[in-house]
Amino acid sequence: MSGSIYGKCFTISTWGESHGEGYGVVIDGCPAGLPLDESQIQAYLKRRKPGQSKFSTPRKEEDKVRILSGVFEGKTTGTPISLIVFNENQRSSDYSDIASYYRPGHADYTYDMKYGFRDYRGGGRSSGRETISRVAAGAIASAILKELGITVYAYTKSIGPVTIEYQKCRKEFSMQNPLYMPDLEAAKKAEEYIMEKQAENDSVGGVIECIVTGMPPGIGEPVFDKLDAALAKAVMSIGAVKGVEIGDGFQVTTRTGSENNDPFAYDQNKRLIKLTNHAGGILGGLSDGSEIILRAAIKPTASIGRPQRTANKNNENIEIQIVGRHDPIIVPRAVVVVESMVAITLVDFLFQGMTARMDRIKEFYNLYKQ
Amino acid sequence: MSGSIYGKCFTISTWGESHGEGYGVVIDGCPAGLPLDESQIQAYLKRRKPGQSKFSTPRKEEDKVRILSGVFEGKTTGTPISLIVFNENQRSSDYSDIASYYRPGHADYTYDMKYGFRDYRGGGRSSGRETISRVAAGAIASAILKELGITVYAYTKSIGPVTIEYQKCRKEFSMQNPLYMPDLEAAKKAEEYIMEKQAENDSVGGVIECIVTGMPPGIGEPVFDKLDAALAKAVMSIGAVKGVEIGDGFQVTTRTGSENNDPFAYDQNKRLIKLTNHAGGILGGLSDGSEIILRAAIKPTASIGRPQRTANKNNENIEIQIVGRHDPIIVPRAVVVVESMVAITLVDFLFQGMTARMDRIKEFYNLYKQ
Amino acid sequence: MSGSIYGKCFTISTWGESHGEGYGVVIDGCPAGLPLDESQIQAYLKRRKPGQSKFSTPRKEEDKVRILSGVFEGKTTGTPISLIVFNENQRSSDYSDIASYYRPGHADYTYDMKYGFRDYRGGGRSSGRETISRVAAGAIASAILKELGITVYAYTKSIGPVTIEYQKCRKEFSMQNPLYMPDLEAAKKAEEYIMEKQAENDSVGGVIECIVTGMPPGIGEPVFDKLDAALAKAVMSIGAVKGVEIGDGFQVTTRTGSENNDPFAYDQNKRLIKLTNHAGGILGGLSDGSEIILRAAIKPTASIGRPQRTANKNNENIEIQIVGRHDPIIVPRAVVVVESMVAITLVDFLFQGMTARMDRIKEFYNLYKQ
Amino acid sequence: MSGSIYGKCFTISTWGESHGEGYGVVIDGCPAGLPLDESQIQAYLKRRKPGQSKFSTPRKEEDKVRILSGVFEGKTTGTPISLIVFNENQRSSDYSDIASYYRPGHADYTYDMKYGFRDYRGGGRSSGRETISRVAAGAIASAILKELGITVYAYTKSIGPVTIEYQKCRKEFSMQNPLYMPDLEAAKKAEEYIMEKQAENDSVGGVIECIVTGMPPGIGEPVFDKLDAALAKAVMSIGAVKGVEIGDGFQVTTRTGSENNDPFAYDQNKRLIKLTNHAGGILGGLSDGSEIILRAAIKPTASIGRPQRTANKNNENIEIQIVGRHDPIIVPRAVVVVESMVAITLVDFLFQGMTARMDRIKEFYNLYKQ
């Protein structure tokens, strides 16, 4: 059944495989009149592009995006926007032997079980390259959020044992190191840790944190389409994510209510605020006007150079060694993917939220009565 | 916009407020021919019923369910099943003053922002009583899973600092203590911890773990409706949940690939198994045939007897003290809610999974050609 | 799979069978702040109630509606609205023999094929009484449309050979005769025709026309969710409807383009109008600001007193005679059902239409920024 | 809001404009293991291609389709199938002046109202070329139906006053004349009629009939997603369609129940059949095993060479004359579009129908248990 379509009002439909013709996404439900050109999308894709540092696969792919529809004279028209990135530099020969066995930590076995066979070249649909489509759509969602004064910022919070605190970070540092870690000292330590594990033909994991500012309160659709529930799905749908937390997440389980509740108060400008934000900006499934905070747990790259035990299709237990160079860590390139999925979800829910009150609907249609 | 509807093939639509006429759910897409009577559903509701132990609110509610449609001569007919639980014993007078201010940790403020006003009696739609509808539907989903040999088992894994290991538990112990903790010694310690905090007019949190056995491999719909993504949404949509993990969850972030990958192997019966299960039974968003394992972080009850600072609607910062007795912990009563949301999600995805292969579809329709 | 749920933004979920406990509908996505009480809904239900004239079944049912959720202090709260009508006066014994054979023109056979068995009492889920749920929801949709200055008016356009022209009708006459025909002379002729056929133990069909005024232009979602496509589905989903036309409908097939095109022009107030309305108020799947006009073809009642040939479940060809009195015509009671389905659909699309333009979305959120 | 996505289980997402880069469709939910190559799709596209007869625009477009994803080694993989047809031979200069006014019978005005502006080149998204995406997806749906022994056949039933009877036709004649009319004598008369109107710079309409054979009984999802309701939407969503009928359609409105009911009977092979088929193969919204019959009313081409009155954007009433050659009739090229929309809808509902019975679901999963 259909599973590559996401969103109710702002809907994206993605396609593509690692060694097919390319990747793409159709965005249906993008409002008309948004200024859009390819360079805006390219800037986002650049952040997930391989071959940019010593920690990412040296395949030099351009991942050049083309807008095929939905834009006229520099603006979106309200009709579906089709984006495409043609694949280049894919050598199918590299993958010929992996057709016969199941790589640990990969989807080889489960795809075979579901579909009866699989496009084994580079993981086919289950390849991390699938996120190209997400990021391309995310760039458009971010452009919409910008018009509404909302920003989504994700960064590398931890790599292996090296963890940083958001309060001590400076956002602008994110872009100054290949790990997207906004604490340059920690980034250096993390780099050393990765190199150490890489030398052992091994890989490492980490945590991505995402912060949303400027979100109006009251966004989310109880009781199943709560904003936190939707964000959890959005982020967990990214390959390699094994956990999601909102606000203080699992830490709240050892707290008491008096420690965990965030008191409301009016500030000196008589604006209602929360004095703390353990809740991570969401109460009862609705945004509460403070920063939305979420974290994603990213597993270490499954493809490692070390010998591994596994099974093949001939009922044999074997030992394999995955050839070719793979990223020793997924985290840095996944930062923009988390940002994209959050942005897409927020746009969808902002749109859904427009029909919550009769008085506003009435005013809306009165304003635009011809 | 519509947010109280859940599921694509097996769809539930819930309604009800704490102090309205009652709660209900319409299940649309339940297959015909499933034996069903009210006692099956009542047994599930009993597990979330208040007034059963010293740790749950003493309101004595029967929460008696009625089947209003979709069942004929003891079997489901394939048409929508409407279930209703009428409210009893609700005293609106208790809640009169909370209309004027925003309780910390509750949805009072965010509902006001979204809808312009709120049914303040007992939290209205945002009350935990909303889960009655989920559990009633969950009972039916569980009956379907049982026919397919699949079991969903959730339990209290931790309460405050008291944590237990699944490997050391005996499932049957769950039902022998009011905390649904399958380690009676730990349960005793947890009980003491709760009483201590309760004496301080405070509340505590904890972790629920859920284990699914018997799930066939290949269930899930990449790339957005991955099984783990869907389960994350299902569980995060339950009030009070602040984090979700699959398999080893956040622990994987400090592991290496060689530690985290689960090797495949054939066992002595030539059945393919995984030698470890760090992945928690899901690879590439598809079930892999091993146990599915997930955990939910439950925050401490927001309603506490202690004085708390907050703001009212007259632009004043005030101190409040919430009267009435509230559960000092949400965890035990939420166990069956987690089980229900997982069961509903699994049924939906098992149904979705039936169209994955052309050969099976063909065989299906050949079998039933008249 | 789920099929009793309708609408994307304004979503209704219906349930109930002819001889079950009752009928109901859950409306999810109704905006907060709409004044609503049971009498408004009852007024709509009255128009489809049986036992009101010599042409409708003499079963005296009250069809009394209750609001179970979603309304607080006389206003909708934005949360799901659950409506219920308990069945009364259902005698299951009347239907015992129809369990064994397939009534011509009914869903007996097809339900057996789909579900394996059926609730045969009074047609079960396939009974015309199912429209109670639609009309109850339609009453709420109509209340929303009224706030936006939009009216939906349906009437009996033809009964057998007796046809009337909208231009010659006076709306207020609709309510003055049991056939909802706004031309009293024609109504009299139609009445005679029905009585003639009724005397022969036979039944008759007819056409319902529906006119929408006050609809803003630009509503509809190309290319699949065009407004005309959505209306066609809405109306065709009503039992007994065998055809749907928009504007001049099938008549256009023998016209030329120059005859059929509606010229645009500015009127003396410089408002853009269409000089004719062959298109029925929809161009390119979007409302064009003129009256929306659609017609539904209603088949003659399938239950007739005459002897009919059919087959039973014992592989025998038999002759049956359906006992009990049935409406000799469906049309008059279906008028309010057509109105309801059109109203529900329009509300859903008005809500969908709010996200079509970036400038309006921006203005919307600026207006309501706290 | 999203409106270019169609189907629940077999979902298509289309994009493209008349003078953009091209047209495409992403098919999500196509089962794995279906043999598929570009030539199968090209054969369908050929039937709607322009420039093939004197009655279609002389633009010579190749409309060459490419499969970009979802197919591996000649078979579908179960992942999204992306199809693209690049535009060629589009001269935007031809359309420069239509930017300033609203063509009668077109979507120019309504698109402006909805989106604030429009891609005016060749009608942009509202162009009939949009059906390329539908037909490409329809080819795949038809391939699935073929595997299940189901055929969908549409043909030109009438052009202006020239009407034919299905009973007198021979299917194979359809392909032997440019009008897809399976009665060669009638086709000749229709041709003359078209030429006559074309000489007057005018256009003509007609009726398309579609017949489905081999459909198993019990397919459809009451009460809103009835098969006839879904087909009505599918067909009405095609531009230029103004009416849809199932079975005898509007004719039933002047019939009596005894004339209109189709008697059931066992044939000599003890198979249950209907002795007549006024219902058009659908009872209670479910397929009944006999032929499904539907008709679509197609309006005359809106673009005509004759002078027409209309309004421009400067508040002026003007007279226009549309230059360039346009098809004098839409019907023949729409035949394959109707077939496609019906095929897509049937596949979607066959997939939906797989979860109707618990016993079959159980058997399904037992069969495929590893």
Automatic annotation (TrEMBL), chains A, B, C, D:
Residues annotated to bind NADP(+): 48, 54
Family: Belongs to the chorismate synthase family.
A Gene Ontology biological process term: chorismate biosynthetic process
Known function: This reaction introduces a second double bond into the aromatic ring system.
Pfam families found in the cross-reference section: Chorismate_synt (PF01264)
HAMAP family to which the protein is assigned, alphabetical: Chorismate_synth
Keyword entries, A-Z: Amino-acid biosynthesis, Aromatic amino acid biosynthesis, FAD, Flavoprotein, FMN, Lyase, Membrane, NADP, Transmembrane, Transmembrane helix
Source domain of life: Bacteria
A single GO cellular-component term on record: cytosol
Full protein name: Chorismate synthase
The keyword Amino-acid biosynthesis is assigned to this record: yes
Reactions catalysed according to its record: 5-O-(1-carboxyvinyl)-3-phosphoshikimate = chorismate + phosphate
Cofactor: FMNH2
InterPro entries cross-referenced by the UniProt entry: Chorismate_synth, Chorismate_synth_AroC_sf, Chorismate_synthase_CS
PROSITE patterns noted in UniProt: CHORISMATE_SYNTHASE_2
Subunit composition and interactions: Homotetramer.
Binding positions (FMN): 125-127, 284, 299-303, 325
Enzyme Commission number(s) of this protein: 4.2.3.5
Cofactor note: Reduced FMN (FMNH(2)).
Pathway note: Metabolic intermediate biosynthesis; chorismate biosynthesis; chorismate from D-erythrose 4-phosphate and phosphoenolpyruvate: step 7/7
